[in-house]
Amino acid sequence: MSEALKKVTQEIENLRDDMVKTLVELIKIPAISPNYGYEGEYDKAQKLLEIIKDWPFDKVEVYNAPDERAKNGVRPNILAYYYGEKGEDSPRLWILTHIDVVPPGDLSKWTITEPFKPLVRDGKVYGRGSEDNGQSLVASLYAVRAMMNLGIRPKRTIILAFVSDEETGSKYGIEWLMKEHPELFRKDDLVLVPDGGNEDGTFIEVAEKSILWFRVKVRGKQVHASMPDKGLNAHRVALDYAYHLDKLLHEKYFEKDELFDPPESTFEPTMVNGPADSPNIAPGEHEIVFDCRILPKYSPDEILSDAEKLAEEVKAKYRKEIDGEVLPEIKVEVIQRLDAPEPTDPNSEIVKLLQAALKEFRGKEAKVGGIGGGTFAAYFRKLGIPAVVWATLDEMAHQPNEYAKIDNMVEDAKVMAALALL
After folding, report:
1. CATH class for domain 3-208+342-421?
2. Is 165 among the catalytic positions?
3. Residue in 378, 393, 376, 396 with CA at minimum distance from that of residue 166
4. For the whole model, what pTM was predicted?
5. Assign residue 347 a region: left if phi > 0, alpha if psi is -120 to 50, beta otherwise?
6. Of 67, 132, 166, 167, which one is the catalytic site residue?
7. Which family, according to UniProt (predicted)?
8. Which fold has domain 210-338?
9. Would you say 197 and 358 are in contact if contact means Cβ atoms under 8 Å apart?
């Protein structure tokens, strides 16, 4: 270990209490998407800017994606630059975290503390957004702060990106930045997305499955349940359709790729919705949502084509003319789609650097693989920029009583510093 890295590592330890205080301050501020009926990330972004306003970053830029639904009509994205030893000519390392969080969910299940009233207990910080993505956001901040305190310039310029809208598709976050400000990104950049991992921090994600969420809307004719012949029960049609689609997708797209965990494509019926509010109503409408995580070898277009074809078959099976209208209607609507890009090369520089850093600090060989979840590493891979997803996590994301382990935050900050210094 170099002398500089030793000093930075010790300084990160010295900053442990400051890291906890910063995480607590950030958790207090909800930053939930307007998609869920909330105001977005503006207040939390302002708090973050206030925290770092006197830090000696070389440049701090705010890019506001317009969104009239959000507070002040914007979804903020912050870039903070700390130049390397060769100034602006240094090679560059991005560390991307997101400032938005998911809604708290069922409040009755928060038994340790309320979602936005952070509590420090037993080496953990409890609260919504603590682990996802506050832990890594603060770790990245203080990896840089330690170098600043010591007057050390890293080998690589560090660009800390704090972006909006990761939890609902990145339309106002990294996707918007890449579309509106392509000049920010370079092919030879290295990218770390600390938004996925395992408990001992030995898993490096280099590949993702395609993501496809679609809603199936079935329309029949509502009728009293005692006289089903006078209408068309949309619930029955939807059940039939969902059962056969689930069966078809699992049987047709069965192949496995051991790079991923789980190794096969997954097709999960999730949300359902219908207007019937009484046991004696045969509903005229029914909706069901499918969450599909598809191995890169398969195209989401194939899945959608199968869903549409089956819709025609089920419509023919239940065809009925009521008051001059042919029913049922079955519509397939895409909610979200992200086609898997080419994986990051397991032999790329960012992978090798991270493996070396983990060997240094953890004494373990890191495993390289793929996941079913989506991260914004995929957006970099689409540009041909190598990106890895890594962090040390207890996998409390989106859970009631979500927490971040303080040791994980501190130890990950050391690894992040090593990526810039090695």
Report:
1. alpha beta
2. no
3. 376
4. 0.84
5. alpha
6. 166
7. Belongs to the peptidase M20A family.
8. Alpha-Beta Plaits (3.30.70)
9. no
